[in-house]
């Protein structure tokens, strides 16, 4: 029997293909429009997701499985890219101070979020998770300080270096909270998980780091092989994480840190950025927006204003307190302190990925790790901080001195 001609493809399948292509096209068109409006890309992608989601137009319902696949891959690539973006050379120059500031800007928000969780009626595990959500940060203001020519200012370098500690620690707390919610807490299980982490983290960071340097040296001119290697690293690190009951995003972030040094300056990095930022990462943010029910968000804000106002206040005050600790300890100026604060204020990449994981984590009793109220509060916080952080950085960064100017 002769194969059916291409034109006989079922209409339903063609319709699905057309919708998927439209979905991808939307992800490509939204970021340039956002930049013209001076809005963060993620805000526009989330708004598009809300518009085409079930609460409004309810488009792409028949392509949900395909969209979910793109979103899951995008989530891993987003965290891998977050690891790649951290400048390890800058971190090494101010290692001790970066660790101190990173510890402060992680611990203070963690404690503030923990207190907020208790105040809003959450148990230990969920409250700890809420704290971890505001303990990390996304360097949305990096392009601002880079454009202002103050990346080499010590306060800026310390703030950027602190991201390594905050994001890694926040993701490890997420992993422990998810495990506790699914399997219950016991000291024996916690001890086993800590041992697994003690083996897994060096294995990924050191092992993949050495493999990456050797690979990029051997295949320096073969960009396609470099991209395939990066995709392999992401998938293997994520799979190994899942084998010890960690979230795949933990492995993806650590893998990004591991191959960071070997990848710098290669054309494979540019190709990978194109692949990640064309269909996959925008799809993740659009899919995140599709999950948002606008009516539920407004209901959550109206019914639990303490959570919404509290999480923004806890984040802002605790991050400012951490920046003040650095100011007092390292004799920074007020403008340097405010710039550090503004750089650590935005909550986008790691926070949204971790929030989605926590919201989708349901234990055998049918209970979510966090509810709609926390999800709604995090989304409002993301919107506020992703706009406020870069604006504040834009105001104060140009006033900073660089080493050559001092």
Which structural traits does this protein have?
globular; Na+/H+ antiporter like fold; mainly alpha; 406 residues
Description of the molecule:
The protein has 17 helices and no strands. It is an all-alpha fold and 406 residues long. It has a single domain, classed as Up-down Bundle (Na+/H+ antiporter like fold). Helix 3 crosses helix 12 and helix 13 crosses helix 17. The termini are far apart. The model has no long low-confidence stretch (mean pLDDT 80).
Secondary structure class reads mainly alpha
Based on CA atoms alone, the radius of gyration comes out at 21 Å
What sequence of helices (H) and strands (E) makes up the elements? Answer: HHHHHHHHHHHHHHHHH
Largest sheet, in brief, is:
none
CATH fold node name? Na+/H+ antiporter like fold
Looking at how many chains there are and whether they match, the oligomeric state comes to single chain
Count of structural domains? 1
State the helical fraction.
over 70%
- The rounded distance between the terminal residues' Cα atoms is 80 Å
**CATH top level assignment:** Mainly Alpha
Tell me the number of strands.
0
Q: Please identify, by name, the CATH architecture.
A: Up-down Bundle
């Amino acid at each position: 029997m002769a194969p059916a001609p291409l034109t006989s493809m079922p209409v339903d399948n063609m319709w699905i293909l057309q919708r998927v292509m439209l979905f991808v096209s939307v992800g490509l068109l939204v970021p340039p429009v956002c930049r013209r409006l001076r809005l963060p890309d993620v805000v526009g992608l989330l708004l598009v997701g809300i518009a085409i989601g079930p609460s409004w137009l309810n488009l792409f319902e028949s392509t949900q499985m395909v969209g979910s696949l793109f979103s899951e891959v995008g989530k891993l690539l987003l965290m891998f890219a977050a690891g790649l973006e951290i400048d390890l050379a800058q971190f090494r120059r101010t290692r001790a101070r970066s660790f101190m500031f990173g510890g402060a800007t992680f611990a203070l928000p963690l404690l503030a979020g923990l207190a907020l969780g208790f105040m809003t009626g959450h148990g230990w595990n969920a409250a700890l998770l809420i704290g971890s959500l505001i303990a990390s940060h996304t360097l949305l203001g990096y392009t601002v300080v880079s454009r202002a020519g103050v990346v080499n200012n010590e306060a800026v370098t310390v703030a950027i270096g602190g991201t390594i500690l905050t994001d890694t620690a926040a993701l490890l707390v997420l992993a422990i909270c998810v495990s506790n919610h699914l399997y219950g807490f016991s000291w024996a299980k916690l001890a086993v998980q800590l041992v697994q982490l003690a083996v897994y983290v060096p294995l990924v960071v050191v092992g993949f780091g050495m493999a990456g340097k050797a690979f990029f040296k051997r295949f320096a001119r073969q960009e396609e092989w470099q991209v395939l290697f990066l995709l392999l690293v992401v998938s293997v690190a994520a799979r190994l994480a899942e084998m010890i009951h960690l979230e795949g995003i933990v492995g993806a972030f650590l893998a990004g840190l591991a191959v960071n040094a070997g990848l710098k300056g290669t054309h494979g990095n540019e190709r990978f950025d194109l692949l990640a930022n064309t269909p996959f990462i925008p799809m993740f943010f659009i899919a995140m927006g599709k999950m948002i029910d606008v009516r539920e968000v407004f209901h959550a804000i109206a019914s639990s204003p303490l959570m919404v106002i509290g999480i923004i206040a806890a984040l802002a005050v605790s991050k400012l307190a951490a920046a003040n600790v650095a100011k007092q300890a390292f004799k920074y100026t007020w403008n340097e302190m405010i710039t550090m604060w503004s750089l650590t204020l935005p909550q986008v990449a790691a926070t949204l990925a971790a929030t989605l994981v926590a919201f989708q984590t349901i234990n055998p009793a049918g209970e979510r790790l966090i509810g709609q109220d926390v999800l709604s509060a995090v989304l409002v916080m993301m919107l506020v901080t992703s706009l406020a952080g870069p604006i504040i950085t834009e105001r104060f960064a140009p006033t900073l001195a660089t080493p050559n100017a001092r």
